Amino acid sequence: MYVVRPVELADVDALERLAAVITPGVHTLPRTRDTIGAFVERSIASFAAQVDIPSEESYLFVLEESTSGDIVGTAAVHASAGSNGTYFAFRNDVIQQVSRDLNISHSVHALTLCSELTACSQLAGFHLRDREHAGIEAALLSRARLLYAVLAPHRFGDRFFVPLAGVTDADGQSPFWNALGRKFFKMDFLDAERVIGGSRNRTIIVELMPHYPVYVPLLPGDAQAAMGQIHPGGQLAFDLLTAEGFEADEYVDIFDGGPILAAHKLSLRSFCGSQHRRVETAQEGAAEHFVTYAVATNAERFRAITVACPPCDTSDVLSLPLAAQQALGVAPGDNVICVRI
């Protein structure tokens, strides 16, 4: 059984091992022991903080295989993007160009540096040790952070977005970066990512990135083709997020041109499809009538699992086997939240 829970200090070694097998250029996971430790400490402080409105909190979750205790995945959610500054992205714009003298009017596709995503809540850092063979635990890891937001809505904004890593080649080079960002930063894509540390809210970005619209037709063909396209390693996350209710928005990442998915929380399945239920112990029954739920406990001691059990659509109780109750740390009569996988 897999369990998603908030990260702990004891997980730093496991996260360091996990970071070592992540694809270069995927920029949302700290890689060094110091940066991982700092992120873990920040997450622990965020979970412990008394919050009235979303601010600088970042919540890091781990996917644990309960039998072995191995950490096989991690995912994060930031309460407010750009909490340490303004969050920057490129907005896809259409600029109207008109010449009355020549009687010409046409539209031009352009990219404009913008900060409109600042203060939206941001999903980030979705990583699995073996994503090619991932099963239902991937959906659990992706959804658990949203279930936490359902349980603690005051900690998050009304809108969520997710930047996905863009296209890079076998050497970690980004055609979008080479056509645009490299002209201003004067460094390779991976070097720039290391300098920025995966952030999109650093002062250096607004200092170096162009403040005027960039005409897309003037970019090389490979850079235009890469816009809004995801890194192959991000396909699993993309599929899970679109099934959740996220859609490609009008923004792309300023470094690699990857897509940015966005949604209002009320259009997400975790918010509109989740149900609060009271736990009861499952009786022997016909497994063919079971459905699979992601089930989570309260925000104070958050745990999330997947479990096959009788449907609870017409009942105020959720029948859980003892193993599921033990993994969640609940007993009959306790309240949980559940949503169909």
UniProtKB/TrEMBL annotation:
<dbReference type="InterPro" id="IPR007041">
    <property type="entry name" value="Arg_succinylTrfase_AstA/AruG"/>
</dbReference>
<dbReference type="GO" id="GO:0006527">
    <property type="term" value="P:L-arginine catabolic process"/>
</dbReference>
<dbReference type="InterPro" id="IPR016181">
    <property type="entry name" value="Acyl_CoA_acyltransferase"/>
</dbReference>
<keyword id="KW-0808">Transferase</keyword>
<dbReference type="GO" id="GO:0008791">
    <property type="term" value="F:arginine N-succinyltransferase activity"/>
</dbReference>
<dbReference type="Pfam" id="PF04958">
    <property type="entry name" value="AstA"/>
</dbReference>
<protein>
    <submittedName>
        <fullName>Arginine N-succinyltransferase</fullName>
    </submittedName>
</protein>
<keyword id="KW-0012">Acyltransferase</keyword>
<keyword id="KW-0056">Arginine metabolism</keyword>
